[in-house]
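so my prof wants the structure for this chain in the tokens format not the other one, which i didnt know existed until like an hour ago. anyway here's the sequence
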Amino acid sequence: MRSIFVWAIATVSAALLSLDRLVAETSQTTEAVADSFSVRIVHCSEPPKIDGKLDEDAWGKAATFSNFTQVRPREGVAPSEKTEIRLLCDSDFLYIGIRAYDSEPDKVIAKQMQRDINLRSEDRVRFTIDTFRNLRGGYYFAINARGSRQDGLVDPGGSGGGYQSEWDGIWYGESSIDDLGWVAEVAIPAKTISFDPRDDTWGFNVERDIERKGERIRWSGAQRNKRITDMSSAGTITDIRDFTQGRGIDFVPYLKADFKKDYAAGTDSFELKPGMDFFYKLSPSVTMALTVNTDFAESEVDARRVNLTRFPLFFEEKRDFFLQDANIFSFGQIGRSPLPFHSRRIGLTPGREPLDILAGGKITGRIGDLNFGFLNVQVDEFENLDSKNLTVGRVSMNVLGESETGIIVTHGNPSGDTENSIFGYDFNFKNSDFGGSGQIIESHLYVMKSFTPGLSGNDFAYGASVGYPNDKWEFSANAEQIDRNFDPALGFVDKPGTRKFQTLLVRSWHPDRLESLSLDTHAEVRTRLDGEIIDGELQVAGLSVENLMQDEFLIAPLFLEEQLFEPFEILDGIVIPIGNYSFSRYLGEFVTSDARSLSASISVEGGDFFTGARTDLSGTVGWRPSPHFNVSANYETNIIELPEGDFTVNVAQLNLNVIFSPRLAWNIVNQWDDESNRYGINGRIRWTIKPGNDLFLVFNQEIDTSTNKWKTVNSDLSTKAAWTFRF
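here's what i got, hopefully its the right format
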């Protein structure tokens, strides 16, 4: 099986490399910005030292711009503080220098220092780079005044600000605060990013947040209804040339030592496991990745959740191998269900326990207007399941300026011995200057068919949506149908045999001293294929208020309908009978900004629930006394009162974070819930000796809390060293 796998990877690699060489010069995309947002980069012979000081001679010769405009709180006016960006490059790096002037540098908000932490409430500078100038994707980078760095892949169809923050690239950045404000220096290696060497112009945009003022300023496309990740509004940097990627090889061997103890079985084990990841750029725009004996010990632990619904929970991908160029595999861009491909199905058992990946390969890239991805993985056997070979292929074309159309194919079934395949087609339309007004309009269309032995017919899924995602007015509507035999074994579907309709209308205002005031009305209904309602929710004129410091308040009425066609066992021994249930609820939330040293949030949702009542309470408290230490605690309780039986579900989480430097952090996550009666501890120390070279020490322990005498169920202590060699 492995020889066939290697042969397939090599054959596809050779074919794509030949195609890359045959493609003519890439057609130039129509520029969406004025000439004032284009800068010619300066090539330097003496690279600057990345130490957060901007005191090298090279920076004095750099291409420089400072023409920023407010996005908020007052769109279109001049910034209150000056920001200066300097650009340099040599054959190996793109260098970005940031001088963030501040008249009150002692009030700069920089409470975070850790790598890949949320910087939403920090003084930060963010920038995006569209290396293919296709107006759709690219790279996202952010740095704050303490040197905390965050990165991601621009993903127009994604949530969370339009980028996938789980991606980690190798790059360098340092910051410092001084009497003039703060300074940052960034170096992005040519070997980290993919690009088209035939095009010397890249899309580029920069944005700065001055948090205490609630001020956001942007270089190009300074409109509230545009994000920094909206590459159609980006400016450009020109004269990008002579970038070298050497042989284009990243070789990342790693060694993991793992000690496990099962207290219930009275056994323990020790395993020394070598493995490696191998990345080879067949060209600057095409990357091949191989992984052997893959291990994800360093991945963040999932937040514990208790499912009180009739539908499965969705968990995000957090593993680096699957996140590399993950945006190429995005499909449909309507919602989370149905998905033809969800990489969390690979390398995990049905109970979400890690399952060994024996080997995996991936080829991703862009050639002209063609985008493609091919993934093949061999997973180990598990209990009564044989070893599985799983395959995904995705091809799309850039069309109509900002739009995209393509197909996806999957083959393999990670959770059963029955074969399964999916074929899907999608079309994603976007226009960021609708009618010349600067407003965005978008639409998505998809159709999929599954192929499963014994399930022929009624095996399609299809959907369409239209959206107007702008500032003062936002509107969207979508409709989807999932046939009863549609089965994406490598994807995700919450309920086959259903139709789903959703609509959203939001009106926003920006009065003085407030960031926003909005009214949100949305509706969702899910039916069986015969038209019988399964569930529905209507929120009418939910009021949301956010001040300049990002403190938020929300209150909303909710009207729900649930129809049970069979008894629903919501908890062991508590069964809600068949019937049609209509009920109303209320929702209230208050969240203070993380920019405060002491922050908090509280959420209350209550009202009717099936045959009785339900109240959901959750609260979070966070304390950030220093950039080197922070702690947060979250508690959620669901109080359900039913004639069939009363019960309460509690979930608690305590996070302790000690950050010695931007490269060394110790994170401890404590979680408990009384549904499973399990208390889990996850401790992780990550030391980045330099970007790409990491040492991890991870400790996991699970404790049974069902009796007064807590009993340890299992313990796991592992250490992993991963080193990147670039050629």
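also thought this was worth mentioning. The CA atoms of residues 693 and 723 lie 4 Å apart.
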